[in-house]
């Protein structure tokens, strides 16, 4: 059976669920400029970069052209400062179910473990979860030219490991992330709902349901179809 050499994980929604903290920080910012912001709209922001998220919120409030770039950068900074106040209180209890067991199994079978997050706060979050030592490489989002759905961040991790994409498996909870994995030429594991992640090569409803043997079987079939 063909086996992958690396697993490359998204952070927010895969390793831990920071979506609620992003929600609280964006909601406070939106309300301060008179834009309604609820949990349903927050779903649109999963996997989307900071400035792109702000643009979506401004569009929702019909304020897409109401601010200068300098003002928008100040708003994004304000949101991020609030977000950082919330995430520094995170503890290892907030690692999603079965993720520690999965990483341990991969480590034991000498599979490389990488992190490909759009978040510039990834190192802070991993530090609070006490997980910095669990990853062989963490991509630095500040140095990645194009954010998801572009393939750059997954390719950065594969390049660091010196691996061709076809030996890498990406794990994502957002449609933009699954597209990013596929554009990088990798096998995609989706965590979530078929309505948004139907393009994934294998899908699990949540992290507790991840079945590594099922991933290996599906990857083997996929690998044989690669050139
Ligand atoms: C992604 C999140 O992982 O990172 C998005 O799903 C977030 O919601 C993006 O906007 C960027 O994160 P940050 O921490 O750099 O603002
Ligand atoms: Mg995510």
Protein architecture, described:
With 227 residues, the chain is an alpha/beta fold. It has two domains: 6-16 and 94-226, HAD superfamily/HAD-like (Rossmann fold, 3-Layer(aba) Sandwich), CATH 3.40.50; 19-87, Orthogonal Bundle (DNA polymerase, domain 1). The chain contains ten helices and six strands; from the N terminus they run βαααααβαβαβαβαβα. The chain has helices at 19-32, 39-42, 50-60, 69-87, 99-108, 122-128, 152-161, 175-183, 194-197, 212-225; strands at residues 6-9, 112-115, 137-138, 168-172, 187-191, 202-204. Strands 3-2-1-4-5-6 form a six-stranded parallel β-sheet, with helices on both faces. Strand 2 (112-115), helix 6 and strand 3 form a beta-alpha-beta unit. Helix 1 (19-32) packs across helix 4. The longest helix is centred in the middle third of the chain and has 19 residues, at 69-87. The chain is globular and about 55 Å long. The mean pLDDT is 96. It binds 6-O-phosphono-beta-D-glucopyranose (BG6) and magnesium ion (MG). 6-O-phosphono-beta-D-glucopyranose binds at residues 11-12, 22, 45-50, 53, 80, 117-121.
């Amino acid at each position: 059976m063909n086996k992958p050499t690396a697993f490359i994980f998204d952070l927010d929604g895969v390793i831990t669920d920071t979506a609620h903290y992003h929600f609280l920080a964006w909601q406070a910012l939106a309300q301060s400029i008179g834009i309604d912001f609820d949990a349903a709209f927050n779903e649109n922001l999963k996997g989307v970069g900071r400035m792109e998220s702000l643009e979506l919120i401004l569009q929702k409030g019909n304020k897409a052209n109401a601010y200068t770039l300098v003002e928008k950068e100040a708003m994004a900074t304000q949101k991020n400062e609030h977000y950082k106040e919330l995430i520094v209180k995170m503890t290892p209890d907030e690692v999603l179910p079965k993720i520690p067991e999965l990483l341990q199994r991969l480590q034991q079978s000498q599979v490389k473990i990488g992190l490909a997050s759009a978040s510039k706060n990834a190192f802070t979050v991993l530090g609070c979860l006490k997980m910095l030592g669990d990853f062989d490489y963490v991509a630095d989002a500040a140095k990645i030219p194009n954010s998801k759905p572009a393939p750059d961040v997954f390719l950065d991790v594969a390049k660091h490991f010196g691996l061709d994409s076809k030996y890498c498996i990406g794990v994502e909870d957002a449609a933009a992330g699954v597209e990013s994995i596929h554009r990088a030429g990798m096998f995609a594991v989706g965590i979530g709902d078929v309505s948004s992640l139907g393009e994934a090569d294998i899908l699990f409803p949540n992290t507790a349901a991840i079945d590594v043997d099922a991933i290996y079987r599906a990857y083997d079939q996929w690998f044989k179809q690669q050139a």
